Amino acid sequence: MSMIAAFYGGKSILITGATGFLGKVLMEKLFRTSPDLKVIYILVRPKAGQTLQQRVFQILNSKLFEKVKEVCPNVHEKIRAIYADLSQNDFAISKEDMQELLSCTNIIFHCAATVRFDDTLRHAVQLNVTATRQLLLMASQMPKLEAFIHISTAYSNCNLKHIDEVIYPCPVEPKKIIDSLEWLDDAIIEEIAPKLIRDWPNIYTYTKALGEMVVQQESRNLNIAIIRPSIVGATWQEPFPGWVDNINGPNGLIIAAGKGFLRALKATPKAVADLIPVDTVVNLMLAVGWYTAVHRPKSMLVYHCTSGNLNPCNWHKMGVQVLATFEKIPLERAFRRPYANFTSNNFTSQYWNAVSHRAPAIIYDCYLRLTGRKPRMTKVMNQILRTASMLEYFINRSWEWSTYNTEMLMSELSPEDQRVSIAPT
Ligand SMILES: CCCCCCCCCCCCCCCCCCCCCCCCCCCCCC(=O)SCCNC(=O)CCNC(=O)[C@H](O)C(C)(C)COP(=O)(O)OP(=O)(O)OC[C@H]1O[C@@H](n2cnc3c(N)ncnc32)[C@H](O)[C@@H]1OP(=O)(O)O
Ligand SMILES: NC(=O)C1=CN([C@@H]2O[C@H](COP(=O)(O)OP(=O)(O)OC[C@H]3O[C@@H](n4cnc5c(N)ncnc54)[C@H](OP(=O)(O)O)[C@@H]3O)[C@@H](O)[C@H]2O)C=CC1
């Protein structure tokens, strides 16, 4: 057994955001490789008419967890869903549950966040900043806690070009922002938001930067590490290749291209496409959890989980690859044959949007109307173009992330763990 997998044996692990993309893959790997772990506590809220239990049932019965059931048949006994809403005071956790969490937790993986680029400042601060502070406060009351792993994003400092594995200060103290949100009304908050976020491209990256500052300021004597993944994509190898369950990041646009909706994108072909498979991120998370708990570094370490400096790809190569894949394996019921181009020119991009996107959508909707059906293509197209414009900032620039800490950690792993973490079979 690998040293890292053995480390998680017998542990009580608390995961926030376990129902999200990264959280599910983290849980899967933990149960599959450390089936003797004691318990995984997950903080969950009811959603879309589903109770906590129904949500957990759905996750455990999904294709992602098929292998887990073979290795850890009693997985449902080892997962303990705790009612929690991270936007509420004390997360609205009951006294009994809180007591259990405080007295039993050994490791925390804090993944929960709002990842919407256009969220309100109030909600994004509540989730990405205040909730992080609250969780740190809880962590400081956990006598058995060995490590607190905070998941941030490589783009939390995307206002810089070269980013080191350090925490950069934000112009306004997070505490001042948290305090002012208590008395300012929503309209004023939205008015001051652009002034606060300055050269950050959106509320998401800005509040993730504030979240990191809070981690640094409230770290007390805790054993903390921060991981910054870049753009997290589908699984590379584990538990099987190609698993993804959302349309965030590049996923929505890739599907739109495959369906023939999206035929041009305002992107810089030579800009680095820094994607990282979700199973690689999870492997680093587990290694960081182990290293932080066992080696207890003197200062809090930040780890970049990026691909650009090791195995760089650019958007042109990525686009060619995406199109080649759709040639081989076309999507069902496509609107048009996939074909697309990148342009970094504003005028050309507007032209393609009019000619290749909006006009065909209007024509198709006319056809639907004439044949007595409900028009829908213009709505779909507007949605795709809105998403593409939100992502534009990230596909027209390149960043350099240093990876000294991540490389140091890799060199500390046993040969077995290096094999399992870097190139799992
Ligand atoms: C000669 C040869 C030349 C060849 C040249 C080759 C060229 C080839 C060109 C090919 C082109 C195509 C290929 C494409 C390949 C490349 C693609 C590149 C894209 C890369 C993008 C990179 C992005 C990087 C971002 C990095 C940021 C930092 C990373 C992070 O930390 S992660 C977190 C990232 N967060 C997100 O991604 C969230 C972004 N989304 C949003 O903020 C919002 O959704 C929104 C975009 C603002 C849209 O908001 P709306 O309110 O308008 O919509 P809403 O969200 O309500 O959703 C509408 C409907 O969609 C459903 N839906 C939304 N999200 C999801 C979800 N996650 N899962 C499932 N369903 C979802 C929602 O339910 C709504 O549905 P409805 O209710 O039925 O309407
Ligand atoms: N995906 C990516 O490309 C990248 C992600 N990251 C970071 O990784 C982490 C995980 O992201 P990802 O898994 O993609 O995001 P998801 O949106 O898939 O998951 C977010 C998780 O947070 C939970 N959550 C949100 N609001 C609340 C709340 N009020 N109370 C309780 N739980 C809540 C969600 O629960 P629910 O299911 O109930 O909504 C969900 O489990 C985030 O910190 C993100 O910043 C960093 C870089 C890239």
Short structural description:
The protein has helices at 3-7, 21-33, 52-60, 66-71, 75-78, 95-104, 121-139, 174-183, 186-197, 203-217, 251-258, 278-295, 315-328, 346-370, 377-395, 404-412, 415-422, and strands at residues 12-16, 39-44, 79-83, 107-110, 147-151, 162-163, 224-229, 231-233, 264-266, 275-277, 301-305, 341-343, 400-401.
Q: What is this structure's SSE topology?
A:
Layout: H1 3-7, E1 12-16, H2 21-33, E2 39-44, H3 52-60, H4 66-71, H5 75-78, E3 79-83, H6 95-104, E4 107-110, H7 121-139, E5 147-151, E6 162-163, H8 174-183, H9 186-197, H10 203-217, E7 224-229, E8 231-233, H11 251-258, E9 264-266, E10 275-277, H12 278-295, E11 301-305, H13 315-328, E12 341-343, H14 346-370, H15 377-395, E13 400-401, H16 404-412, H17 415-422
Parallel strand pairs: 1-2, 1-4, 2-3, 4-5, 5-7, 6-13, 7-11, 8-10, 9-12
Helix pairs in contact: 2-12, 7-8, 7-10, 12-17, 14-15
The structure holds ligand LAMNML6D and NADPH dihydro-nicotinamide-adenine-dinucleotide phosphate.
GO cellular component, one term: peroxisomal membrane
Domain Fatty acyl-CoA reductase C-terminal: 357-419
Main location: membrane
